[in-house]
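Chain A, query sequence.
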Amino acid sequence: MFLNRLAIFHFPVTWKPADETIIFAIRLPRVIGGALVGAALATAGVLFQGILRNPMADPYIIGTSAGAAMERLSP
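Chain A, predicted structure.
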């Protein structure tokens, strides 16, 4: 399915067009978005641990979580 879209391979189509639409229009963007959010959170965690030089660093130490809560409350 995915390899056929790359125009390198041409396998016989054995799936329904609705299945292809569901995978490429709904599920694949969510998987990619989840991977990007996970990578961003991992990067933020590494930065906190590196800046604070504390392997147990969390956002409460420097007030990041409180700042995020205030941002949500502001209009």
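The chain has a mean pLDDT of 82. Helices lie at 2-5, 17-52, 64-73.
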